[in-house]
Specification:
The complex is a heterodimer of chains A (94) and B (497). With 94 residues, chain A is mainly alpha-helical. Chain A has a domain of 36 residues: Orthogonal Bundle (Histone, subunit A), CATH 1.10.20. In chain A, 36% of the residues lie in helices and 4% in strands. The longest helix of chain A has 18 residues. Chain A is flat. Chain B has 2 domains: 354 residues, Amidase signature (AS) enzymes; 60 residues, no CATH class. Chain B contains 15 helices and 11 strands. Classes of the chains: A mainly alpha (94), B alpha/beta (497). The interface between A and B is large, with 46 and 67 residues. Chain B: Keywords: ATP-binding, Ligase, Nucleotide-binding, Protein biosynthesis, Transferase. Chain B: One of its GO terms (molecular function) is glutaminyl-tRNA synthase (glutamine-hydrolyzing) activity. Chain B: Its EC number is 6.3.5.7.
């Protein structure tokens, strides 16, 4: 499985990581190695096998849906990279 | 005063007999941490919590003076992998993206040790976000193996393993996703416990592969691991995958013989490329188990070789989702260069994540993307079910499995760094059990020559794998083995022995 530079750019965009041209080439090679490695899995016959999603067999662990006050409100606001008047501050969108 | 290499049980007894106070013990180990564990030494510690530790130790001494039945872990110093959230104490996950991050809450296991009045000495180095098997992907540089400081301690819990091996702490918290406790414990010659998935709460542990992540411990003996397991295990409303099953008195139930115990030796774990001397140590250990009365049965697990492949898909896939939260918005690193919102995401992540994290995020993004999900993630989860079934079948016949923890002894720092497959191969004997949520141990079982230098002897680890919730089986086997061997009592030279 050999990835193209275009594919790597598309993956990086989906993953929200900015790559330089050198990095695109580096990761193109390295991701290809990983994908090549996992391609062996095709050899395992999984016809009729249902995928597993929880290994110890738990299903639908539920709890009461009740509102609670967070004890951490002020501490969380204090750890924002930027804040103003108790609100999270971000860059302009438009 | 020789305390560095005592087991927790020995230190606990000294505390109870008033031969030493927790404050004295804490000062003693803090000195060692500062002398040997810092950046210019083993680089095992990223943060030392001296002030907090002394306050905790004073409180422990107050409890010990009043209550003769105080908990086993009261007043005992420990270290925590820097993946565990510690309230008011910097927690980096060894990533630049969390370089200045100070959590507002404690991980559940930290809370548990706090209520036992154990004493946290500091936070240990790891591969960035636990992505790796050598600590070389840490943003703060690799930790060093105390047996030969030019070699890797293994990873991702390499700082925790190195700290215990060099006698800087009696035990350390660590985490496993696919070998991150067993592999460093093996390479550093200490004992490590990877719990059944859901036995120990993941709350407050930075998520890597949520379907695998298992917090556990590294210590100097299996008995110590069993004691810590009793404290750490249990249901946590904050982690819905934790089990409500009873917690046995693991330590009290330990036995020193293995009569009637059936132990499987899976032939597929003796892989091509395994170091012959490592293989010899494993066969010697199996012989000891036989002497203890165990019945040794050869078994076959043909899907073993696919474990690492399943892992190499599932892990990056879950990582790509879990690390999406690091977007520079609410906490962690925010790029100074960002001019608009999308810049915050792209640049903060580019500047904050190291190469291995990026590699895994992108591999996972690809494996989950439209058109590829069926071929990768879904296929891997189907093979994973087959792996689980294969283990279930074999545990109908045996109580536990034994094999090597790692096929080779520790290699030189720098040899793994640019190999994108290093971790998947280094951990190939650990990963299948992780994918099936099984509990496992690594216990020291001798030494073998380094592959590139026959004058250097490095530790070898015996791996013991149990069925789900079968912690008692593996603790019994590991403990019995340690009653007739002394490999776990060996320690490296050069750390003030």
């Amino acid at each position: 499985m050999i990835l193209t530079s275009e594919q790597v750019r598309k993956i990086a965009a989906l993953a929200r990581i900015k790559l330089t041209d050198d990095e695109v080439e580096k990761f193109r090679k390295e991701l290809s190695v990983v994908l090549d490695y996992v391609s062996e899995l095709e050899k395992v016959n999984t016809d009729g096998v249902e995928e597993i999603s929880q290994v110890t067999g738990l299903e639908n662990v539920l709890r009461e849906d009740t509102a609670r006050l967070s004890e951490f409100r002020d501490a969380i606001i204090a750890s924002f990279p930027e804040s103003k008047d108790g609100f999270l501050k971000i860059k302009s969108i438009l | 005063m020789e305390l560095a290499y005592l087991e927790i049980s020995e230190l606990a007894e000294k505390l109870r007999k008033k031969e030493i106070s927790s404050v004295e013990l804490t000062k003693y180990f803090l000195e060692r941490v500062k002398k040997y564990g810092a950046e210019n030494g083993l680089n095992a510690f990223l943060t030392v919590t001296e002030e907090e530790a002394l306050t905790q130790a004073e409180e422990a001494d107050r409890i010990l003076s009043k209550d003769p039945n105080a908990s086993f872990l009261t007043g005992i110093p420990y270290a925590a992998k820097d993946l565990f959230s510690t309230k008011g104490i910097r927690t980096t996950a060894s990533s630049k993206i969390l370089d200045q991050f100070v959590p507002v809450f404690n991980a559940t296991v930290i809370e548990k040790l706090n209520s036992e009045r154990s004493v946290l000495l500091g936070k240990t180095n790891l591969d960035e976000f636990a992505h790796g098997s050598s600590t070389e992907t840490s943003a703060y540089g690799p930790s060093k193996n105390p047996w030969d400081t030019t070699r890797i301690p293994g990873g991702s819990s390499g700082g925790s393993a190195a700290a215990v091996a060099a006698g800087l702490v009696p035990f350390a918290l660590a985490t496993e996703t696919g070998g991150s406790i067993r592999q460093p414990a093996s390479l550093c010659g200490v004992s490590g416990w990877k719990p059944t998935y859901g036995r120990v709460s993941r709350y407050g542990v930075s998520a890597m592969t949520s379907s695998n992540d298992s917090p556990g411990t590294i210590a100097r003996s299996v008995k110590d691991l069993a004691y810590t397991a009793e404290i750490l295990a249990g249901h946590d409303p904050k982690d819905s995958t934790t089990s409500v099953k009873d917690i046995p008195n693991y330590a009290a139930n330990l036995r020193s013989d293995l009569k009637g115990v059936k132990i499987g030796v899976p032939k597929e774990y003796f892989i091509p490329g395994m170091q012959p001397e490592v293989e010899a140590r494993i066969h010697e250990a199996i012989q000891k188990l036989k002497e203890l009365g165990a019945e040794i049965i050869e078994v076959s697990l043909p899907l073993t070789k696919y474990g690492s492949l399943v892992y190499a898909i599932v892990t990056p896939a879950e990582i790509s989702s879990n690390l999406a939260r690091f977007d520079g918005i609410r906490y962690g690193h925010r790029s100074e260069d960002a001019k608009e919102l999308s810049d915050i995401y792209d640049k903060s992540r580019d500047e904050g994540f190291g190469d291995e994290a990026k590699r895994r995020i992108m591999t996972g993004t690809y494996a989950l993307s439209a058109g590829y999900y069926d071929a990768y993630y879904l296929k891997a989860q189907k093979v994973r079910r087959l792996l689980v079934n294969e283990f279930n079948d074999v545990f109908e016949k045996v109580d536990a499995l034994v094999c090597a923890s790692v096929p080779n002894v520790a290699q030189k720092i720098g040899t793994a760094k640019d190999n994108p497959l290093f971790g998947y191969i280094a951990d190939q004997l650990n990963i299948p059990a992780s994918m099936a949520g099984l509990p496992a141990l690594s216990v020291p079982c001798g030494f073998a020559k380094a592959e590139d230098d026959s004058s250097v002897l490095m530790p070898v680890g015996l791996q013991i794998i149990g069925p789900q919730w079968g912690e008692q089986n593996i603790f019994n086997i590991g403990h019995a083995y340690q009653t007739i061997t002394d490999w776990h009592k060996k320690y490296p030279k050069g750390f003030g022995e």
